[in-house]
Amino acid sequence: VRGRNFTWPHKAAQWLSTIWDQRVDVNNAAKPATGAAFGAHCYDTLGPGGADLVVVEYSHNTFATEKMEVLLQTVRAHGAALIVLDYSRCCNPPPRQPFVVQERSVRFLTMLRRRGVPVLAFEALRDWWAAEADASGETLESYFGRKVRAKDRRHVADDGHAMMAEMAVRLLHTTWSTMQQERQERQAQREMAVRLLHTTWSTMQQER
User: Fold this and answer.
1) How far apart are CA 99 and CA 111, in angstroms?
2) Contact indicator for 128, 107 with CB cutoff of 8 Å
3) 167 closest CA partner among 83, 90, 88, 91
4) For position 4, what pLDDT does the model report?
5) Of 148, 200, 168, whose CA–CA distance to 11 is shortest?
6) Model confidence over 165-179: pLDDT tens digits?
7) Which of 15, 75, 127, 171 has its CA 20 to 30 A from that of 26?
């Protein structure tokens, strides 16, 4: 990534601060060439202590389900909410066909579903890439190589990170909006119950 402004943690902080109209701090605790076991073992020293939400990225360096599971257990043991970003299919252009959620396209899918962990899969952006490729008159393979994948063919380019950041922000904002709506509905139900109790009590007092 050429500059900090292109990284998804910076984009996420910028966009969420604007959407929620308050300061949102994002600590990028990721370390190059490390895996889930390292993150679990060094969790307390990597900086996410006291975090409301931890976003776990994984791609080439974590293949064992049990190692990822330990990291997810560690995050939850510290009381943080959790989502994961799956970059494990970021090297090759995806096929030009609708994305299907399955173990072949989302690593650790079975375990993530069992634990109720939301996941954003990099390959799920293929419809977006195909539309962008069509608009620019390119093949999907050409567009992917120019805009999404880095020149080393092993990592994600700036625009790929920005796309993933936008998807993460959309997920967080949708979840937050749903929680706010549910909180308002619960508050309305409590107020209605209080009014009902007060009316019942007043009626009993009058009858007495």
Assistant:
1) 20
2) no
3) 83
4) 54
5) 168
6) 777 777 777 777 776
7) 127
